[in-house]
Amino acid sequence: MEAVAERLYSLEEYFAFCETHEGRFEFVNGEIIEMSGETTTSNRIAGNIHRYLAKILEDSSYELYQNAVKLRVEDGRVVRIPDFLICEEEGDAVRYTTLPLLIVEVLSESTAKTDRVEKLQEYSSDPSLQYYLMIEQTKCHVEMYIRDGERWYFEFYDKMDDVIRLPYFKADLPLSVVYRKVSF
Question: Residues 105, 135: contact at Cβ < 8 Å?
Fold first, then answer.
């Protein structure tokens, strides 16, 4: 990811910038950062999760988004575009969403450090977030951070027959679904 310019922007300037420029851009403390291109594998993984959980949660009061919806965190100082997220329905705004419950980032060489460090810190500071999943696309491996009150703990999954438990949604997510039609 690369910063677009050397000056700091306001949140409103960021939204105006996004309306007039092609591509996907995140906003971090006044900087507009162009997102790297997405692989077909990354998109497939996010799509697999989206389709599977959409069926399970279709009668719920949640909104599910993939790859293009902005998420405002850190009191508006940061706007990210996760690969997949589930939000509370009442948190939705027109240009962005808030109140995330589950966030998925599919890791790549260019984004892994940001996803594991900066985004983990930003996302986990949001009191509504219950789960943050970081998913490898070159091998079977998922890191999941789970909120337990004021604390976070993590679990790792690395077998195709592993099942990720999502008790907040009363759902399970098999890794065989996450990696459906993905070759390593």
Answer: yes
